[in-house]
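[Primary structure, fold]
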Amino acid sequence: MHDRLPPLTALRAFDAAARHMSFAKAAAELNVTPAALSFQIKGLEEHLGAPLFRRLNRAVELTEAGKALAPGAAEGFDALRRAWMATRRSLDARTLTVTAGPAFTAKWLAPRLFDFAQKHPDIELRFSASLRLVDFDRDDVDLAIRFGMGGDDAGVYSRVLVREWLAPMVAPHLAERLRVPADLLKLRLLDDGNLDFVRPPCDWAAWFRAMGVADPPEVTPQFSQADHAIDAAETGGGAILGRISLTTKALQDGRLVIPFPTALTTRAHYRVLCPAGAEQKPQVQAFLSWLFDNVGEFAAHDRQMSFIDAGDVGT
C-alpha cells in the first residue's frame, strides 16, 4: 500500500457522500451528475484497494474503511475552508463584518451607523446580531463586541469598551409621580432577564437594598430581550433598571429619564475582540477608532450619577 494521496476531487466527492449518505444528494451539492460522483468514488476505492460504501437498493452505507476515512476527510475540508476564508479576509481591506448582541445592535450601534458610513464610504460594513460564542474562522467575522464578566482572551486582541451601570429609568410622565425611591414600588417593575448570570446580582432587589428599601419588590413582566423591556418602559409600561449601554439614546432624546441618580455598577462589561493582529487592518482600525470616539458619550451621563458597587449591597 502506497502513501500517495488520491485526487482532491475524489476525496471531496467521498466527503459529500459520507455526510449525506446519498450519492444523489452529494452530486447535487457538488453540482455534478450522480454518475460522475460515483465514478470519482469508484476511483478513490481503487486507489485505496478497498470499498468505502456498501451500495444498497436505494441507499448507501459506509464500510469500516469508509468510517475510518470520513472524520478525517470532514476535518480536512473544514480546515481548508477556514484557511481559505482567513486568507481572503487578510487580503480584503474594504469589507468589515462585526457581530454584537441584538439589544446593543438595536439600541446603540444601529442609530449611529449612518455616521460611520458617512465618514468611511469606502468600507462595506456588515452586521450579525448574535449572542453566541464567536469563532472568527468559522463565522467569517472580523470584530466582535461582547458583554460579560470577561474570560480567557488568549490569542485575541481584547479591549474594554464600556463599563456598565444600571439605574431606574421611566417615561417622563411617570417620573412626575416619584418623590422617593419607594414610590417606584407603585409602578410595574420591568426586567429583561439578561443579567441573571452577573455575580454579585445587579437587579431591582439590589438597587432597593442600596436605597434602604427593605422589602424585595415583585418584578414582572420579564422580557427575553433587553431592547423589548426598554421599549415597554418608553411607552409608560413601567420602570426599568436600565443599562446605560442600551439607553443612552433614549435618555438623550428624552424618551426616558432617571428619577433617582444613584446607579449600581457591575463587574460585567463590554469588550471588543478580534483575532490577534487583525486590529492593524485598515478597516478594523477605522471602526475601532470610531467606536471608542463614540463611547465617550457615556461620560456625560456618568458625571450626573452617584455609584454603588453591586458587590457592596449584600443580599
Notes: The chain has a mean pLDDT of 87.
